[in-house]
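Figure 3 (text version): structure tokens given as input.
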């Protein structure tokens, strides 16, 4: 059986995902491209060529949507690198038939690669509805490659496309045509003529080599520099470039060839495309008149986001409670099975509790990505970027940053994953760095505990609102600072088209939701499990049998249950103080002393690096109340009042509001940002910011109290 390796290339929103489903009619294999978070979809299927009685195994790789083969977005980098370095046989260039000219711009770059290319004129059904007619034979003649009309939605042209792939693969001659202006073609011909005269043997055609030389392709120059012919060829190339510079009035070759491709795409589209009828106002235009209205657009969008947020964290809380109950029962069963000893404790308090903490958020993840998938597949996400880009741009952010930032108020893990909607690397990194400023739900118990301890009931709600608003404002300010200091030379415009509104594909939405949910479980689950076991070990070791024996003796002789509990809690506190966790807290206490923190507050902060949920229970253990306490525990509130000054409490809230998210979120951050170095930057940035602002808050609060 013959193997054909195919790559699917096209601009965003051309229906590649639906087309690959229509081609294969089988399950997709989904992963990531090496070293990046960009999704990689692959599929294999068999095709029988009845003409030659041959069977073929066709392997397709769906490359990320790219407007051009530049390196502005990470998707474009991945696509360009794959096309230049990977081993494949055929390129299927998927084109939106309703936007032929814009799509042919990428096609012109693909023709430059010298590979076998077949064009799938997708969405031909939509083109017919809009009265757009494309002369396929004429387009094939102009480009020198086969062009097939397809509709993934209606499953038409699919078999013809498969046949074209096989035919192109078996055809030893493929003459793709990329025609430049007379000025460029003349200079290409000069170089080609010289190469023919010298009978120079090349892996690519002489014309392809000439184009690369005129484009100053670095790889081509390095290779040719080693050839003896280079001494004679260099003056010819230099002379050709000078003629081109003179004609275009610029020495920017990227701009020159971009103009050439645009002119070629425009000319080809005009040659083969005719519009039979143009409706006065399309359905898309009618919807846009409301959804991107200068007055109503933003309120409508905010309503949609409020609705998504409510669905994510209100409906999601129903199965969360059930999952929480299930894992609590599982922990109890583990204790019954393995006993109250070390094995039972590590399984129940470490492993099961750790897995449960992650699985509990799975309903939120699925609801969130369902909403995002609907926004993207219907075409509304582009309108969101248009609406908010102006405001967010003032802080160095992209309009699409709003989605992950608002998600961050629920949980940082899905917020980091939602940042994938940002295609530009700089925009995505900047957004990832400030998501932590949006206080996640796990920090809420800490805020409730401290506001309840230091403010009256009628003040606490307003203070809580102020905390959340302050975090968001600090995030925007931090984004502005990072944009000026770190990304000061990387502020580039990001153009995004407005695709037509379309009914979402249920299969595609399910694929998106399920894939993201599975990735969440794989990424977050393993790390939070490891962190839970690590904290369990650090808080339970080393053992002090003599100390435990002394307290057990005292406890046994007491009759009063409250006195027994008090003594048991005191033992817990002493063991924790002398554990590895307590030792670390004591050692790092001097670093936090200027903020008014004692070693207990320091330990609570450090356990919060694993999961913010454990900060309150850690304080409960440290203040000899046991770990079965929550933010509304009266005894803990009193202990906080007695042991923590008001100024230190304010500083503590500020620090919690800013410092590094939990370990699960941090590990997802590493994956989404693209490397461990970014986590180191995030740790330094958030810790330094949290320390400085906490110190300022502490000094101000001291002045107010004084």
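Below: residues designed for each position.
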């Amino acid at each position: 059986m013959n193997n054909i390796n195919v790559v699917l290339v096209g601009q965003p929103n051309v229906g590649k995902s639906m087309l690959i489903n229509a081609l294969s009619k089988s399950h997709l294999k989904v992963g990531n491209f090496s070293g990046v978070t960009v999704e990689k979809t692959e599929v294999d299927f068999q095709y029988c060529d009845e003409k030659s009685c041959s069977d073929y195994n066709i392997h397709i790789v769906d490359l990320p949507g790219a407007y051009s083969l530049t390196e502005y977005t990470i998707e474009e980098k991945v696509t360009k690198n794959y096309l230049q370095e990977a081993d494949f046989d055929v390129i299927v260039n998927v084109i939106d038939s309703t936007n032929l000219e814009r799509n042919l711009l990428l096609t012109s770059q693909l023709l430059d690669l010298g590979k076998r290319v077949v064009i799938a004129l997708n969405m031909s059904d939509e083109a017919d509805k809009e009265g757009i007619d494309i002369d396929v034979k004429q387009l094939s003649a102009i480009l020198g490659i086969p062009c097939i009309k397809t509709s993934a939605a209606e499953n038409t042209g699919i078999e013809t496309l498969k046949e074209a792939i096989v035919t192109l693969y078996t055809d030893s001659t493929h003459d793709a045509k990329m025609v430049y202006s007379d000025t460029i073609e003349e200079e290409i011909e000069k170089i080609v003529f010289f190469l023919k005269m010298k009978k120079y043997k090349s892996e690519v055609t002489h014309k392809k080599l000439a184009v690369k030389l005129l484009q100053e392709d670095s790889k081509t120059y390095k290779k040719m520099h080693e050839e003896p012919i280079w001494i004679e060829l260099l003056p010819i190339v230099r002379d050709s470039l000078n003629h081109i510079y003179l004609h275009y009035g610029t020495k920017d070759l990227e701009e020159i060839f971009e103009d050439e491709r645009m002119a070629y795409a425009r000319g080809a589209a005009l040659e083969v495309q005719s519009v039979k009828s143009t409706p006065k106002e399309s359905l898309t235009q009618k919807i846009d008149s409301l959804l991107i209205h200068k007055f109503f657009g933003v309120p409508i969008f905010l309503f949609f986001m409020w609705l998504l947020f409510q669905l994510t964290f209100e409906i999601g809380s129903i199965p969360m409670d059930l999952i929480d109950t299930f894992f609590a029962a599982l922990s109890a069963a583990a204790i019954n099975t393995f006993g109250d000893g070390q094995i039972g404790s590590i399984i129940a308090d470490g492993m099961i509790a750790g897995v449960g903490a992650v699985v509990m958020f799975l309903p939120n993840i699925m609801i969130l990505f369902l909403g995002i998938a609907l926004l993207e597949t219907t075409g509304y996400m582009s309108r969101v970027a248009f609406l908010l880009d102006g405001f967010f741009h003032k802080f160095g952010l992209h309009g699409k940053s709003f989605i992950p930032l608002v998600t961050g108020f629920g949980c940082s893990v899905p917020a980091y994953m939602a940042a994938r909607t940002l295609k530009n690397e700089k925009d995505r990194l900047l957004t990832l760095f400030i998501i932590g400023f949006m206080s996640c739900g796990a920090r809420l118990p800490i805020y409730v505990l401290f506001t309840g301890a230091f403010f009256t009931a009628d003040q606490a709600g307003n203070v809580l609102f102020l905390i959340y608003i302050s975090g968001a404002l600090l995030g925007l300010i931090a984004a502005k600072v990072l944009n000026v200091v770190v990304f000061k030379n990387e502020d580039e415009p990001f153009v995004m088209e407005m695709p037509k509104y379309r009914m979402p594909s249920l299969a595609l939405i399910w694929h998106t939701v399920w894939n993201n949910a599975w990735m969440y479980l794989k990424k977050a689950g393993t790390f939070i499990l490891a962190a839970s076991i690590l904290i369990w070990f650090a808080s339970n070791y080393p053992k002090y049998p003599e100390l435990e024996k002394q307290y057990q003796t005292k406890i046994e002789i007491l009759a009063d249950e409250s006195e027994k509990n008090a003594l048991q809690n005191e033992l817990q506190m002493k063991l924790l103080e002398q554990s590895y966790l307590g030792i670390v807290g004591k050692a790092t206490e001097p670093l936090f002393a200027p903020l008014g923190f004692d070693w207990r507050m320091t330990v609570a902060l450090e356990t919060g690096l694993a999961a913010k949920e454990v900060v309150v229970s850690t304080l409960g253990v440290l203040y000899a109340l046991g770990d079965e306490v929550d933010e509304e525990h009266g005894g803990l509130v009193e202990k906080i009042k007695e042991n923590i000054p008001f100024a230190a409490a304010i500083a503590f809230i500020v620090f919690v509001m800013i410092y590094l998210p939990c370990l699960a979120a941090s590990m997802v951050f590493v994956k989404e940002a693209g490397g461990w170095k970014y986590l180191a930057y995030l740790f330094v940035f958030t810790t330094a910011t949290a320390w400085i602002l906490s110190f300022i808050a502490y000094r101000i609060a001291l002045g107010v109290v004084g």
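The first strand starts at residue 2 and ends at 10.
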